[in-house]
Task: structure prediction
Amino acid sequence: MYVLITTMLVMAGCSGKATKKTELEKEGLKGKAKSVEQFVYSATETDGKIQKGELLQSNIKRYDEKGNLTEDDLYHRNVYVYDENSRLIEEYWYNADDSLIAKLTYEYVYGVNGRLEEAKSATKLGDFNSYTYHYNSDGILVIKNTYGYNIHGIIYKSCQEIFDEAGNVIEKSNYTETGNLSSFDTYKYDKKGNEIGHTYKGALFGSAEWIVKYDRDGNQIESRYLDIVESKNTYKYKYDEKGSWIEQITYKSSEGAAKEASRITERIITYYE
Result:
C-alpha cells in the first residue's frame, strides 16, 4: 500500500548532501533570520590595509519563521512555497522583469511505514526526473537513485548517492545515458556534520580534492584546493550581536605566492522578533 502526496518538486537533478541542518544553519545564521542581503566585493591589500573594490555579486534570501528558504535571487528570482509540515509544494523561477520562467511541481510516494520511497519531478515539456530511496533494516536512508528522462521517456542521465548514518552523502556516482561512469565524488564530515573533505574524479576533467577547516561555531576558516597547483583560502569574520557573521574577508594564496586579500563579503541580516 502506498500513499501518494502531490506537492511541488524541486528535485532537479542529483542533489548534494541530505544533511539535517536547516537552511539557516547552512548559512551560518544564528537566531530566527528573516532576510539576508549579501554583497561580494573584490579586495586589495596595500601596506596591511584592505580596500574594498568593485561589487562582484549581490543577492537576497528570505526565510519564513520556521527557517525555510522562501526566496532567493542569486541568478534569477526563485520563490518557494511550503505546506504546514514544511514540505516544499511549489517553486517558481522568474526573470528580472518578473516574467515566469518555470513552475516546478512534485509528487512524493510514501510507504505504509511513512518513509519516502519514490518521488518525481516534471516540466511542462514532458521531461522528468524520478527518485527512489532505499533504507537499511533500522530504517535509515542508505541509497538514493536519480534518473533523468527526456521527453521521449528515455533515460539520459542517472546518479546514485550513498549516505552515512547521519544522513550525509559520502559517495556520489554520476552516469551517462549509456550507463558509463562520468564522475565519482566522495565526502568526509566532522562530528558536527561539517564537510571537511571532498574528492572528485571525472572522465573528462581529471581529479581534484578539497579540504576544509571550521571554527567551533561551524564557520569556514580555511579551504584548500588540491589539483596540479595547490591553492588555499583563509577567512576572517565580523559578527553581529546574535553571533551571525556580517563580514567575511577571503585571503587567497597558492604555491609560490604570498597570501593576499581577494574578496570581502558583507551581509545585512534582519530577524523575526
About this structure: The radius of gyration is 21 Å.
